[in-house]
């Protein structure tokens, strides 16, 4: 799937895309069971209340890939807080959609699958409270990100959010940007702590808006360097386990001035959230206005 090129109109689309056609191009589509478990657990914890209170519990998994397993898992996990959650998996490849539809019974509750891109066209006038777009923009150019974000945000329900990010193949390293109707709000970093060498390893899985910004002078580089330094200093705490070491490391980072969201339970699970302003690039998508 490809991000639409920036345009001043409210519904930008790539040059040459016919009106009404899905905004995007087919991606590699790699997926695996449980790959997105970390973001799903975070969604339940951080946005479960919003989903529970939504008048229309509509959720979109955008660009789910060659196999719909992550869509099914998302629906199952969100059903814990909202049993009637309505999850739609959107893909631009008709063959992937047909294969996914063949695996579900349309007469039973469960996720639905349609052809669609960043415009979320199959939803019509309905507005999702949550959009998950993982391992999609990673395959784009950096300059395509801002327009994709804008198009997704324009379709959200009031108070809705987009989580756009990436992870490694087994889902052990992940990061995502949280966007609402006004723009990017925060960055979340997540690790499988068992066997973690250093927190900075997540740099290889930063969202497209940040992955090229892990260089001296950029804010996200400073955050990852601070986490690595704290992790090294808290090595003795590692005798109590990786969870205690991560909690102590994040607490140290907070002490030196990084505005990490206070969530000690999340830290122990290997999840850290910071305001977007703390890591926003100096230029490019998500950069503060000059």
From TrEMBL:
Keyword annotations of the record: Methyltransferase, Transferase
Q: Where is this region: Disordered?
A: 1-32
Is Amino-acid biosynthesis among the key words of this record? no
The reply on keyword Zinc is no
> Which terms in the Gene Ontology molecular function aspect does this entry carry?
methyltransferase activity
Task: Give TM segment ranges.
Answer: none
Biological process (GO), any one: methylation
Q: What is this protein called?
A: Class I SAM-dependent methyltransferase
């Amino acid at each position: 799937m490809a991000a639409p090129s920036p345009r001043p109109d409210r519904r930008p689309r790539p040059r040459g895309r016919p009106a009404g056609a899905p905004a995007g191009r087919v991606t590699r589509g790699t997926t695996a069971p449980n790959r997105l478990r970390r973001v799903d657990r975070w969604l339940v914890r951080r946005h479960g209340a919003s989903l529970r209170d939504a008048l229309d519990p509509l959720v979109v998994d955008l660009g789910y890939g060659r196999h719909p397993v992550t869509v099914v898992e998302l629906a199952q996990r969100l059903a814990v807080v909202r049993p009637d959650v309505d999850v739609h998996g959107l893909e631009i490849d008709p063959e992937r959609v047909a294969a996914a539809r063949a695996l579900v019974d349309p007469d039973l509750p469960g996720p639905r699958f349609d052809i669609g891109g960043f415009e979320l066209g199959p939803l019509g006038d309905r507005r999702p409270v949550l959009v998950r777009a993982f391992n999609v923009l990673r395959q784009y150019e950096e300059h395509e990100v801002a327009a994709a974000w804008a198009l997704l945000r324009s379709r959200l329900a009031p108070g809705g959010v987009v989580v756009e990010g990436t992870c490694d193949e087994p889902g052990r390293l992940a990061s995502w940007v949280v966007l609402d109707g006004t723009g990017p709000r925060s960055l979340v970093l997540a690790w499988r702590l068992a066997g973690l060498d250093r927190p900075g390893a997540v740099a290889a899985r930063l969202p497209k808006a940040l992955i090229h910004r892990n260089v001296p002078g950029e804010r996200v580089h400073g955050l990852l360097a601070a986490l690595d330094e704290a992790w090294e200093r808290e090595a003795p705490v590692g005798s109590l386990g990786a969870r205690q070491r991560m909690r102590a490391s994040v607490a140290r980072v907070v002490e030196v001035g990084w505005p990490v969201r206070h969530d000690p339970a999340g830290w122990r699970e290997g999840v850290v959230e910071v305001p977007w302003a703390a890591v926003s690039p100096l230029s490019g998508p998500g950069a503060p206005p000059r």
